[in-house]
UniProtKB/TrEMBL annotation, chain A:
It comes from the Bacteria. Keywords: Biotin, Fatty acid biosynthesis, Fatty acid metabolism, Lipid biosynthesis, Lipid metabolism. This protein is a component of the acetyl coenzyme A carboxylase complex; first, biotin carboxylase catalyzes the carboxylation of the carrier protein and then the transcarboxylase transfers the carboxyl group to form malonyl-CoA. Residues 85-161 form the Lipoyl-binding domain. It comes from Schleiferia thermophila. This is Biotin carboxyl carrier protein of acetyl-CoA carboxylase. InterPro entries: AcCoA_biotinCC, Biotin_BS, Biotin_Carboxyl_Carrier/Decarb, Biotin_lipoyl, Single_hybrid_motif. GO terms for cellular component: acetyl-CoA carboxylase complex. Pathway: Lipid metabolism; fatty acid biosynthesis. One of its GO terms (molecular function) is acetyl-CoA carboxylase activity. GO terms for biological process: fatty acid biosynthetic process.
Automatic annotation (TrEMBL), chain B:
GO terms for cellular component: cytoplasm. Residues 1-178 form the BPL/LPL catalytic domain. GO terms for molecular function: biotin--[biotin carboxyl-carrier protein] ligase activity. Its EC number is 6.3.4.15. Pfam families: BPL_C (PF02237), BPL_LplA_LipB (PF03099). It catalyses: biotin + L-lysyl-[protein] + ATP = N(6)-biotinyl-L-lysyl-[protein] + AMP + diphosphate + H(+). InterPro entries: aa-tRNA-synth_II/BPL/LPL, Biotin_CoA_COase_ligase, BPL_C, BPL_LPL_catalytic. Keywords: Biotin, Ligase. PROSITE patterns: BPL_LPL_CATALYTIC. The keyword Ligase applies. It comes from Schleiferia thermophila. The keyword Ligase applies. This is biotin--[biotin carboxyl-carrier protein] ligase.
Length: 163, 242
């Protein structure tokens, strides 16, 4: 259990209204006690039993993101002849951009040779434009996501033949 | 949390910090600031105007490991905006956030955010730049459509006080707010929430009008239109101010 998880657990217990929670596993034991009269410095929010990774404010019409899979696609399981290929995956949730700007050519095309450290795409959310660099030398075999489509964490973006 | 260095003058705090990061000279949580940013810029190289000696520009650098927990860029941007809303609040200034990251007082801009980042070796390196209209007079300049802390408070504000308040609020949002709370609080601070708004779409000068229902965890604007609820991400269109 790392610090972040412990922090989250403390927050959870504080909000739940419980006065004491003990948790014991093989590796550790933790007891969290809350004191009445101590105000938790966070506004009250409903306790979510199972936090989903993505919270929508309103319902998403299915037409809004036809390409977005409900679950991130499994990166593995390529066909036998594709087993030599590697994938470049999205390090975060966001929108996939193949071009640096709408009037510019794509960073890479199918067949492009790429070097480690070369920018292959941008994942953007709310004006935070993240340049994604390749971690390998290789050749782009397939672009797995359409331009400007939403992507999930760990979703494969490119199929690459290592060179 | 921040290591702070001040400069008498810089062309752009973001550009300078970016240079330090790229040449491996910037430690995590380095913050640089100046009261004289001579060539500030916003998104797409738009000029960010600041009055020499009077307005505050600062940028800070953070890197985050992408291996341990999934990074949600939209929630990071929202957290920065919330820290700013709370910072202004400590000076008695009630601001709203115009999606995605402009700070408005009424319908006038009081602060702007410019975020730049890259992912390298499973780490995201983020440079957050913030420009605050602090001690310049803005009220008479209709063209800039901006306002300053001085215009509102009628007294001068010290840059150290602003930075200190920002640091405290940023730390509190980052450490105490979980994803749900960031999203909820950001939505509460949203400019034009539940009001009729116009979006200027990037495709062929198209406009969309609807009721602004909020922003989702992906950072998309949710708009209730005659044909249902649509989600717009930043690359598709922008919200128009009054």
């Amino acid at each position: 259990m790392d610090l972040k998880e412990i922090q989250n657990l403390i927050k959870f217990v504080a909000r739940s209204g419980a006065s004491e929670v003990s948790l014991e596993t093989e590796d550790f034991k933790i007891t969290i006690k809350t004191h009445s009269g101590v105000t938790y410095p966070v506004e009250s929010v409903p306790v979510v039993a199972h936090a989903a990774p993505v919270h929508q404010v309103v319902e998403v019409p299915s037409a809004a993101s036809p390409a977005a899979p409900a679950e991130p696609a499994k990166p593995a399981a390529p066909a036998a002849d594709e087993s030599k290929y590697l994938t470049i995956k999205s390090p975060m949730i966001g929108t996939f951009y193949r071009r640096p700007a709408p009037d510019k050519p794509p960073f890479v095309e199918v067949g492009s040779e790429i070097k480690k450290g070369q920018v292959v795409c941008i994942i953007e959310a709310m004006k935070l434009f993240n340049e994604i660099e390749s971690e390998i030398d290789g050749r782009i075999v397939k672009v797995l996501v359409d331009d400007q489509k939403p992507v999930e964490y760990d979703q494969p973006l490119f199929l690459v033949e290592p060179l | 949390m921040f290591s702070i260095i001040s400069f008498p003058e810089l062309p752009s705090t973001n550009d300078y910090l970016k240079h330090l990061v790229e040449t491996h000279k910037a430690p995590d949580n380095l913050l640089i600031f100046t009261l004289h940013q001579s060539n500030g810029r916003g998104q797409f190289q738009r000029k960010w105007f600041s009055e020499p000696g009077l307005d505050l520009a600062f940028s800070f650098y953070q890197r985050k490991n992408l291996d341990s927990t999934p990074f949600q860029p939209a929630l990071f941007v929202m957290s920065v905006c919330l820290a700013l809303v709370k910072t202004f609040d400590t000076f008695g200034i009630k601001c709203k956030v115009k999606w995605p990251n402009d700070l408005l007082y009424g319908s006038k801009k009081i602060a702007g955010v410019l975020l730049e980042s890259f992912v390298q070796d499973k780490k995201i390196h983020i440079i957050t730049g913030i420009g605050i209209n602090m001690n310049s007079h803005r009220n008479n300049d209709a063209e800039l459509n901006s306002i300053s802390m001085l215009d509102i408070r009628k007294v001068l504000t010290g840059p150290e006080d602003v930075l200190k308040a920002f640091e405290q609020n940023y730390e509190s949002v980052m450490n105490l707010f979980d994803d749900d709370l960031v999203l909820e609080t950001y939505n509460k601070a949203l400019y034009k929430l539940n009001e009729k708004v116009s979006l200027k779409m990037n495709s062929e000068g198209e406009w969309i009008t609807g009721i602004l229902k909020g922003v989702d965890a992906r950072g998309r604007l949710c708009l209730k239109t005659g044909s249902g609820i649509i989600h717009v991400h930043h690359g598709q269109g922008s919200l128009v101010r009054d």
